[in-house]
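Illustration 12: Carboxylic ester hydrolase.
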Amino acid sequence: MTLLASPLHIIFAATCTIVLCQEYEVVQTAVGKIRGLVETVGKEKVFNFRGIPFAKPPIGDLRFRKPQPYGPWDYTLDATKDASPCMQTLNFGGLKFVTNDEISENCLVLNIHVPGKISNSQNKAVMVWIHGGGFFIGQGSWYNASELALKGDVIVVTVNYRLGIFGFLSTFDEASPGNYGLWDQILALQWVKSNIAAFGGNPSLMTIFGESAGGISVSLQTLIPYNKGLFQRAIAQSGVANTAKLATKSRAVYDFFAQQGDCNDISQENTHTWVQCLRQLPAAKLLNVSMEVMKHHMTKMDFNMILGPALDGDLFKADPRDLFSDTYSEEQKFFRSLDYMAGTTDGEGSLLLMMLPMLAEKYQMNITEGVPTSVICEVYTPKFANVYYNGARGAADALCSKCKVDNSKENYLAQQGENLMNLYGDLLFVGPTIKTLKEHEKKNPKAKTYHYVFTADRDFSEMGIHRPPWYQRSGHGTELLYLFGSNGLTGVYNLTDSELKLTDVMIKYWSNFAKYGDPNGQSLPQWKEYGSEKNYLDLNHQISSGKDLFSDRISFLQDDMHKLMETTEKHEEL
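Figure caption equivalent — predicted structure in token form:
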């Protein structure tokens, strides 16, 4: 073993046996020494520090409260192994989104990936990844960011945050305001800003990025003025703040506890007593209720938030949909001060495919052939109309008509299926993303705005994910395989030469944006700012560009349908 000192008080250690040689690095931070593992990617070194605690375990009296800083330690923290994932189901649709099975409430940790070497002269840009998973599942270390860090020459941090009932239970009063998972993210960002310089990072050059629930989280964090100075740029992938309304009720949660016979006495007068009762329950019972709520949410096809970000009167005093219309609010000012990139895949509707089998027997549906009119017009469009158009008269019929195809046409069921997937994807992801970009870009001289659509299709049948022949598009989350590289996600993926080239291009675009606020760089196809022409970049094996993505579809949802709502409101006033 050898010890080498440096200006950062970094200690290098190599421990060898006959069969194994591992290298370690110890970094002195403001809170204590941290020991990480040196790994080789290709011929380059990446310094990985895993499972660094940024908050005290949120257990006992700290359950259902804002996270408390972990504080300093007087020993060398071992950060060479993945820490426990936060409480969640370990099998979701046959898939696992964690690196180990040891779920725990003691899970508020972050992971740091440093390329090349560690030196305070590096001053590298920092990218903080917020994972997706519907606010119910996921783990920061499921994403190995070594390749992204190395090829992008940036420091990448991935974080855990509380999920499901543990992270988002809200009584909508002081007993349990909610949004603890978002507060976890904020505390993690504060930890990074205070300590990343010890790893060679620039605390004044931070970008937050995330996908799905992570993209929603990123977008929500850009609407919190409290975060001013924590980060300078944001990338929201397949999810933005106005993807879904913030939760405003938890009746379903109360009902499930009542059915179990635990803490079933709930009223407006005793929410404090009720929450204190929940603090005494085993975590496994709370997890069970959390997952039952999620199943209920899916089977009832309720597209409102239940256990997710809530209108708590603290982080959010108004729904993001209203905040976006208030040009002079502090939220808007902060949002528009940040460089912003956002986009989706062209097959976001793939998420709906998970729900269709629930209806197959009742509606005698063969999903391979397509989707019958009864499923579209009796099940989905009425719900879409209620959630997105306040149940306006004629809204469900208008959405139904948009999806229907003349049944005399060949393969009409397949076309209807594709239309329904597009409608779902546009309502939840594409439309809200475009609206967010428009608000950010509008007469904004302070920051840059970029839009992308990811269209590279891929077969994920090796993961047990099968799609009907009529919906062969780039599904929700597909871009993650390319952004993090062939070893970036837990699993084995053999990428073709063309796919590897797309990985390199995406990493350059994302890391350039983090460094400069501009994704463009040498040898890269030009990516124009969104601007008044609504420019976007099409990420595929052949990069291309376009204007006004899916303009007819989005115009129908955001213009024609809202005119219908206005007409309905006027009739109701008469």
